[in-house]
Each structure stands twice: as structure tokens, then as C-alpha cells.
Amino acid sequence: MMDIKLVLFRMVLSILLSGLIGIDRESTRKPAGLRTHILVSLGSTLIMLLSIYMNTYYGENINYYSDRIAAQVISGIGFLGAGTILRKDTGAVTGLTTAASLWVVAAIGLTVGAGFYLGAIATTFLVMITLMTFHRLRTRIHRRVNPYISLSILSIDKPGQIGKIGRILGEYESNITNIDIEHGDDGLIRINIEADVKSFDIKYEIFNSLASIDGILEISEGR
């Protein structure tokens, strides 16, 4: 039988490590955030612990291959990851990084469940470095290669505003790469948009067109 303290320790460690990755995904408003990553890792840890328990419980009395249970996690998690991948009308595919992070979190959960703490902790920190550092590097490279604008729009909070903004950007053949919406208590919303454009020369034309939308109070360049 496994020691209850050891079981609880591995479960708590699984939550902590997956939580670090989940917080990063949550902060960027990805489909799978903190809770999803924790649940995936915790479930994977439990399955690994179950495999170890069944090997210990049955021993050599039965020809039982409990390691096959844990092996199915790696392939099975693909179905959950597929749910985070979206294909936009423009043909762009998003959510691949989040799907990959779910797959890695499942592996971390299995690793913790097996007691290989060093591997689990090292992988967690390497994943964090990859998600945070390389994301900034990718953004810088992207901005240098492609014309890019960042907008901060203050608008009255009413239905249809996002659609109107998207329609105007579409008229200028601009592709929205990121959007963040902050709701205020005063009936206003702040919409932060990052978008690729054909040329920097049309930036102020886009600003003027967006300013003509009823309900938009302020437009400024984002960071």
C-alpha cells in the first residue's frame, strides 16, 4: 500500500506545477486556463498513482499490465487539446500552443505521480521560460517582418461594437492577431487590439474610420 502522505504530496505538487503553467495561459485569456491545466495534471497524477497501486496490489498474482492505463493519457489528452484549436475565417489557426501546454501538463502529472520530481519541476520551469520568453521574441520578430498596429479603443458598452470594429479592419485587409476587452463599471469598455496591416501608411485612415463608429469615444495607439 502507498503511504497516504506521499500520495497527497504528489497530488499537491502536481497542482502547484500545473498551476504555474495554467496562470500563464489564463493571463493571456486562452481557451484552457488555470483550472483546466490543474485538472489535467491532477487527473494524470491520479492515473499514474493508480497504476503504481494496482501493480503493488496485484503483484505477481495476476498477469496485469497496469502501465497501459497511464500510457493512454498521452494519446487521450489529444482530444481535449483539439478542443482548444480554432481555425479563423482568414485561415489562421490558433490554440496550438495551448493544446501543446495541455499535453505537457499531462506528462508532468504522470511524472509527478511516478515520483520523478526533478524531471517534473525542471520541465515546468522550461515550459514557463518557453511560454513567456519566446512569446516576446516571437512578437518582436513578427513586428519587424510584418506591418503592425496596436489600438486602444474606449467605447460605450453596447451590442455590435466589436463586430463594427472588425468589419472596418476587414475592409482595410487587416488581420486581428489579439484582442482584449476590459469592462468598466461606468458602462464603458476598453478594447485593446493588435492587428497586421498591409502598410503603416494606412494606420491613420484606420483610426479615422474607427472614430466614425457611433459610441466610440477615444482611440489611441496601444503599447
From the structure above, extract its key features.
6 strands; Alpha-Beta Plaits; 223 residues; alpha+beta; four-stranded antiparallel sheet; single chain; 17% strand
| Structural classification | alpha+beta
Separation of termini?
56 Å
H/E element sequence: HHHEEHHEHEEHE
Give the DSSP E fraction (strand runs of 2 or more residues). 15-25%
Strand order of the largest sheet: 4-5-3-6
Helix content: 55-70%
Describe the protein.
The chain is α+β, with helices and mostly antiparallel strands and 223 residues long. It has two domains: 4-142, no CATH class; 147-221, Alpha-Beta Plaits (2-Layer Sandwich). It is 60% helix and 17% strand. It has helices spanning 4-27, 34-58, 67-82, 96-114, 117-145, 161-171, 203-211, and strands at residues 86-87, 93-94, 148-156, 175-183, 188-196, 216-221. The strands form two sheets. The protein has a four-stranded antiparallel sheet with strand order 4-5-3-6. It has a two-stranded antiparallel sheet with strand order 1-2. The chain is elongated, with a radius of gyration of 23 Å. The model has no long low-confidence stretch (mean pLDDT 80).
Please outline what is shown here:
This protein has about 220 residues and is of the alpha+beta class. The protein has 7 helices and 6 strands, in the order αααββααβαββαβ.
